Amino acid sequence: MKKVVLAYSGGLDTSCAIKWLQDKDYDVVAMIADVGQGEDFDAIKERALKTGASKVHVLNLQKEFVSDYVFPAIRANAMYENKYLLATALSRPLIAKHQVEIAHKEKATAVAHGCTGKGNDQVRFETTIRLLDPSLEHIAPVRVWEFKTRDEEIDYAKKHKIPVSVTKKSPYSIDINLYGRSIECGILEDPWAEPPEEIYHFTVSPEKAPDKPTYIEVDFKDGTPVSIDGKVYEPLALINKLNEVGGKNAVGRVDAIENRLVGIKSREIYENPAGLILYLAHQELESLVLDRETAHYKQLISPKYAQLIYNGLWETPLKKQLDAYINETQKNVTGTVRLKLYKGNCIVVGRKSKFSRYKLQLATYGSEDQFDQKMAEGFLKLWAMPYS
Ligand code: ARG
């Protein structure tokens, strides 16, 4: 009997997939990845076994997710199409990598996921896995099975006594991890419709946020955030803390029309309080410590890095090469950024670093001025020379 490792979420699609794969004569090993979606993993494991999985692996990947995926994206200032901080996209290569490891442990010859054929996530899973082990067979039940509608799928689940709760059906499709929430479908499919308040869980509305601003200070070491208000946090705890304080101040909501790799435009709402705070703070610190050429060049690299993440190309040579470049730029990105969180706004109000390139004696218009204004004369003659 052939063995398949299924990335299992516990929802209707992946539960039906267990049964469906068994009908195709596969021995199904389920893998549940805990990336901070805050679910009852014992119950999900139980469900997988009841549905027919021969074995279940539950992996807590939260720390690895923050240190090896989220923080590199922060160091890169990665943001897709000027809006999306890639919370969902970053989790996929991590889950896929572990899926390959489990496949090797279990001597499985195939892998499966519950993604549809219309989205980006199928690309991220399958591309990562193809790059790590090209010999594995890929199965995407949702792309090929016979159910035309969700109701048909529910009938199938009922017929096979698959224990899924589809009673309180949410109109939304939601992906959650410790770094952010992605919400689509339902009324959100109308790009003109304002997102209803009920979709948000990480953030309060600006109207409900405190009337007084909250100030925070974030310290970075070599481009990595290490403490908040002088207190050192483990990476995971740091993200949780910033989500909490940002969320309370309505920071991190994003409403985007984005271009999927498969060519479809889609409307997605994101909640990413910690991400937005860190993105703004990190960039600000870089503005203080990077020289002009590096700063400008890095601005060309960041969108490319984001695009690689978005398009499932985490395990490619270019991604590794850019990591080497980015790490080199981060050597002096050490210092502190002060931010003001207020009713949905995240405003940088101060920055300092022992590697600061800001020189008061050059910038000032006050009495400490040491800039020799006469130098400008010759410089300007040369600057205009090529055009005259
Ligand atoms: N559009 C985002 C991406 O491609 C999120 C995808 C998952 N979203 C969801 N609501 N299930 O990364």
Task: Give the name of the CATH superfamily of the largest domain.
Answer: Argininosuccinate synthetase, chain A, domain 2
Give the termini separation: 79 Å
What would the average pLDDT be, to the nearest integer?
97
In terms of per-residue confidence, which ranges show pLDDT below 50 for 5 or more consecutive residues?
none
Strand-pairing-aware structural class:
alpha/beta
Roughly how much helix do the residues carry, as a percent range? 40-55%
- Estimate the strand proportion: 15-25%
CATH class of the largest domain: Alpha Beta
Radius of gyration: 24 Å
Cofactors, ions and other ligands in the entry: arginine
Strand order of the largest sheet: 3-2-1-4-5
Count of helical segments? 13
Number of strands: 14
Number of domains: 2
Structure description:
The protein is α/β, with parallel strands linked by helices. It folds into two domains: 2-71 and 85-170, Rossmann fold, CATH 3.40.50; 174-352, Argininosuccinate synthetase, chain A, domain 2. It is 41% helix and 21% strand. It has helices at residues 12-23, 41-51, 62-76, 87-105, 121-132, 141-144, 150-159, 235-248, 273-289, 292-310, 317-329, 360-363, 375-384; strands spanning 2-7, 26-34, 55-60, 110-112, 137-139, 173-177, 180-184, 214-221, 224-228, 231-232, 253-259, 265-271, 335-342, 345-352. The strands form three sheets. The chain has a five-stranded parallel beta sheet with strand order 3-2-1-4-5, sandwiched between helices. The chain is elongated, with a radius of gyration of 24 Å. It starts with a strand and ends with a helix. The model has no long low-confidence stretch (mean pLDDT 97).
